[in-house]
Amino acid sequence: MPLDLSLYLVTDATLCQPYGLERTVYEAVRGGVSMVQLRDKQASDAQMTDQARRLKALLAGSGVPLIINDRLKVALASQADGLHIGQSDTAVQQARAAMGPQAILGLSINNVDQMFDAPTDQLNYVGIGPIFATSSKQDHAQPIGFGGLASLANACPLPSVAIGGLNATHVSAVRRAGAQGIAVISAICGQPDPEQAAREFQYAYA
Ligand code: TZP
Ligand code: MG
């Protein structure tokens, strides 16, 4: 299946508390989310694997792939569709070897050095950001704005998704900057109506 990065939901269990993680994801998918990444910095591997298995069951038949943040072990144990790695996580080559050729593999990049260091032949997409400062990620790198996004997205041979402080009002700027899609946590997780929140992005694309 071709990769649809248009609306990439990254989860945060704490922010999703009002409805719980599974219901939030369920509703967001109804609203048009095209990819889901399970991200949890607190959970044990066992807890995260359990959560991943539940999300995988929930997403079955929806065509929306489940990506695991950082943890190769969890991605393998839950038979997730892919893994998203940061600059200090498992090496891309090691992740590709373990996950196999069909898996979706993404890497976070923030600057030109990281872009040129990325083994693009092993990757399916890059996440570029943060675009703006955000309280959803602790100790995030320096925000790069839409100018930074444009220079990285245009120079990178892979499809890209922009992340960090973004909401539906940013869709056109993200697309103009050359990224294929937009990744969000707080614009969907913890919103009073996650389905409607996701739908706002669809309207912005239309
Ligand atoms: N990586 C860079 S910024 C970020 C991550 C995981 C957090 C994005 O969260 P939000 O709420 O969409 O700004
Ligand atoms: Mg990481």
UniProtKB/TrEMBL annotation:
Pathway: Cofactor biosynthesis; thiamine diphosphate biosynthesis; thiamine phosphate from 4-amino-2-methyl-5-diphosphomethylpyrimidine and 4-methyl-5-(2-phosphoethyl)-thiazole: step 1/1. GO terms for biological process: thiamine biosynthetic process; thiamine diphosphate biosynthetic process. The keyword Transcription does not apply. Residues 7-188 form the Thiamine phosphate synthase/TenI domain. Keywords: Magnesium, Metal-binding, Thiamine biosynthesis, Transferase. Mg(2+) binds at residues 70, 89. Its cofactor is Mg(2+). 4-amino-2-methyl-5-(diphosphooxymethyl)pyrimidine binds at residues 37-41, 69, 108, 137. Its EC number is 2.5.1.3. CDD domains: TMP_TenI. Condenses 4-methyl-5-(beta-hydroxyethyl)thiazole monophosphate (THZ-P) and 2-methyl-4-amino-5-hydroxymethyl pyrimidine pyrophosphate (HMP-PP) to form thiamine monophosphate (TMP). Binds 1 Mg(2+) ion per subunit. It is an enzyme of class 2 (transferase). Belongs to the thiamine-phosphate synthase family. 2-[(2R,5Z)-2-carboxy-4-methylthiazol-5(2H)-ylidene]ethyl phosphate binds at residues 134-136, 165, 185-186. InterPro entries: Aldolase_TIM, ThiamineP_synth_sf, ThiamineP_synth_TenI, TMP_synthase. SUPFAM superfamilies: Thiamin phosphate synthase (SSF51391). This is Thiamine-phosphate synthase. GO terms for molecular function: magnesium ion binding; thiamine-phosphate diphosphorylase activity. GO terms for cellular component: cytoplasm. It comes from the Bacteria. It catalyses: 2-(2-carboxy-4-methylthiazol-5-yl)ethyl phosphate + 4-amino-2-methyl-5-(diphosphooxymethyl)pyrimidine + 2 H(+) = thiamine phosphate + CO2 + diphosphate; 2-[(2R,5Z)-2-carboxy-4-methylthiazol-5(2H)-ylidene]ethyl phosphate + 4-amino-2-methyl-5-(diphosphooxymethyl)pyrimidine + 2 H(+) = thiamine phosphate + CO2 + diphosphate; 4-methyl-5-(2-phosphooxyethyl)-thiazole + 4-amino-2-methyl-5-(diphosphooxymethyl)pyrimidine + H(+) = thiamine phosphate + diphosphate.
